[in-house]
Amino acid sequence: MFRNPRLLLFAFALVAGAVLVVLLASTIGRSPVRPPLPNPNGYDDFIKASEALLWNVDDFPTLDHDSFAALVSTNAEPMRLLRLGLTRQCVMPTDSALTNNYNLLPGMRRLAQLLTAEGRLREMEKRPAEAAQSYVDALRYGNEVSRGGFLINRLLGITCEAIGYAPLAKLAPKLNPDEACAVLRDLDKLDVGRVTWAEVQQSERRFMRYQRGKHFNPIMWVMGWWQIRQAMQRAETKTKTVVARERLLAAELALRCYQSAHGHPPARLDDLVTNYLSHVPQDSFSRQPLVYCAQGTNWLLYSVGSDGVDDGGKPVGRGLASKGDLFFDSP
User: Which residues are CB-contacts of 147 (< 8 A; sequence separation ≥ 6)?
Assistant: First the structure.
C-alpha cells in the first residue's frame, strides 16, 4: 500500500493536518469567564512589599546575628505588607500580567527569603515556635503568590515554598508537642486551600491563547506546544513533590503529637483525623494515603515518589528523576 511516493507524501500531510486540527481544537475556544478579582487583593500587597524591599536578601544564609537583625528590622514595612496580603484573598491579575509578568518574579522570590531570614533570626534567639511560623508563612506565601497565575508563577511559588520548607523540616524535630501542633494546624489549613494543578493548566492555556493571538504561525505553534507540554510535565512533577513533602511533614508532626498524648504511635493514619488532621493525607504521586507502618514506639512514613513505585522505604536520592521513596526530610 502507498507504493507511490506522492500518495505517501499526501497521506503524511493529511495525517499531520488532522493532528494540527485536533491540537488547535483542544486549545482554541472561548476562555472561561473569570470571576472578578478580590478587592482588596492580597496580590497587590505582595507587589508593594517586593517593591519596598531595601536590601538584597540573596546572601542571607551567610549573615551573622546582627546582620540578620538589621536585615529584618530594615525591611519591617515589606514584611508588614507581605503578611497583610496573607490575610486577604489573593488572585494574580492575569490580564495585566500577560505583558508584565517576568519583571515581578525576582522581587517576589526575595520576599520568601526575607521570611526565612526572619525565621533564622528567631532560631538564633531561641524562639523556635516563632521561627516555625516564619517558615510556614513562606509556604503559605508560595501558594498564594501563584494563585491564578501561569506556569511560571506556579514555579515561582514552588521555589518560595522550598525556601521555607527546608529550614522548617530541620526545625520540626526540635519542636515540643504544643509547638508542633500549632505548626500542624497551619499545614493542614494550607493543604485544604492549596492551588490545584488544574488551576495552573487552565491559566497556562489562557496564556497560550494570548500568545497565539499576537502572531500565529502553525509550525512555530506546534513546536511551542510540544515544548510547553514537556515543561508542564516537569512542573507537574515538581508540584507533586512539594505537595508530598508538606503532607509528609504535616503527618509527621501529627504522629509526634499523637505519640506525646498517648505514649505510642497510632495503628493507622485514620486515627489522626479529627484531633490532629482534617483528613487522611494523600500521596500526590499515587493518589492513595501516604505509606505508614507503626514500628513499636517509632514509625515508617513516606511517599512512593516520582517513579510511583513503593520501594519499601528505600530513601530517594537527589534530583527529580531519582528512584526511591520520599520522606519529609529527604534531600
Answer: 43, 90, 91, 92, 195, 199
Query: SS3 of 323, please?
Result: coil
Give residue 140's region: left, alpha or beta (phi > 0; psi -120 to 50). Answer: alpha
Q: What pLDDT does 325 receive?
A: 95
pLDDT category at 28 given cuts 50, 70, 90 is very low
Closest CA to 63 of 74, 49, 79, 52: 74
Question: Closest by alpha carbon to 296, among 265, 260, 259?
Answer: 265
Grid cell 526540635 — which residue? 174
d(CA 316, CA 16): 41
Q: What residues contact 75, with CB distance under 8 A and at least 6 apart?
A: 52, 53, 54, 55, 57, 114
Q: Over the stretch 168-179, which tens digit does the pLDDT of each residue have?
A: 999 999 999 999
